[in-house]
Amino acid sequence: MKKLLDSIIAALEAGRAVAAVSVIASSGSTPRGAGAMMAIFGSGASEGTIGGGAVEYEAVKQASRMFETKQSRIASYTLAKNEIADLGMICGGDVTVFYEYLDPGDPGVLRLYRHMRAALDKNENAWMIRRFEDGKPSETAVFDGDGLHYASLSKESEIMPLLGAAPALTEGKTQYYAEPLSRAGRVYVFGGGHVAQELVPALSRVGFSVVVYEDREDFARAELFPDAADIILHDFAKISEKIRVGGSDFVVIMTRGHQMDFEVLEQMLRTPAPYVGCIGSAKKLEATKRRLIGAGVPESAFEKLYSPIGLKIKAETPAEIAVSVAAEMILFRAERS
């Protein structure tokens, strides 16, 4: 999403129009669900995807015409096999697409998209809100910790139930669409070794904001973690001097040794973080658990401990382990939401 918004903003700043294509509703088995987005530029180049295949092919054709019509609109497609009006898909389902013409001459459009981009770097919940009247867009807004921006949405109470973890579209003559832009909470990865170097970009690409915490300068270098929101170089025994882990945060522990893991676990299991994952074997976990109980950590705290960390996919390499950990965290986030 960051790369997509950066491309849109760069085009608008350069005085070039953009055709933005967003999936706002889907049912059945479709290539991409609500929230998928791509941008088409006048040069024919594009950024992002709404799933590829026939849907995206049709979307690109329709979006290209917007540079002449300069009109935004909604279109719905049936993806059922063997129907005359379908798009040749065999998966089955329906998809609703919003075609949005972004006028570089409208300063409000650039301000809106800059605000949306800035929301991705903040540790807070934020949503994009759209209102449609008779299938035509009337307002687009951003809702965050400071309230509603860039639109009145006179029936603001109607959008509050939509502010969840997944995109949502209401029905009726007046429709509201809400899509999460960012979520409060960070992933604190303790340790900057080989697995962490694979895990941080994997998590960043699926919407997690990641902070790396290390006590070794060589493993806390910015070039090792270009996708990290922050890198902290500090003592593992004094974490609270640098960060305060909250109830929306995730913790991943993969330091260079058992003693360091123990020190971090002892501190993190006392925080309200709902997910604390630690790399290592089941045998190591049992020994560490006995030490932690002896140090006064309540047994109830172990309910949120995921160790050995990651889904059981027989991962061996750092990259494979990163995939298994990221998958487990995606599952946890989805089920919790």
Instruction: Encode the helix/strand succession as letters.
Output: HEEEHEEHEEEEEEHEEEHEHEH
What would the average pLDDT be, to the nearest integer? 88
Helix content bin: 25-40%
Number of domains: 2
What is the 3D form?
elongated
What does this structure look like?
- The chain has 337 residues and is α/β, with parallel strands linked by helices.
- It has 2 domains: 181 residues, no CATH class; 150 residues, Rossmann fold, CATH 3.40.50.
- A 6-stranded parallel beta sheet has the order 13-12-11-14-15-16, sandwiched between helices.
- A hairpin with a 2-residue loop joins strand 6 and strand 7.
- Helix 1 packs antiparallel against helix 3 and helix 5 packs across helix 6.
- The longest helix has 19 residues.
Q: What's the layout of helices and strands?
A:
Blueprint: H1 2-13, E1 18-28, E2 37-41, E3 46-49, H2 53-69, E4 73-78, E5 93-102, H3 107-119, E6 126-133, E7 136-144, E8 147-149, E9 168-169, E10 174-182, E11 187-190, H4 194-205, E12 210-214, E13 230-233, E14 250-253, H5 258-268, E15 275-278, H6 282-294, E16 305-306, H7 318-336
Parallel strand pairs: 11-12, 11-14, 12-13, 14-15, 15-16
Antiparallel strand pairs: 1-2, 1-5, 2-3, 4-5, 6-7, 6-10, 7-8, 9-10
Helix pairs in contact: 1-3, 4-7, 5-6
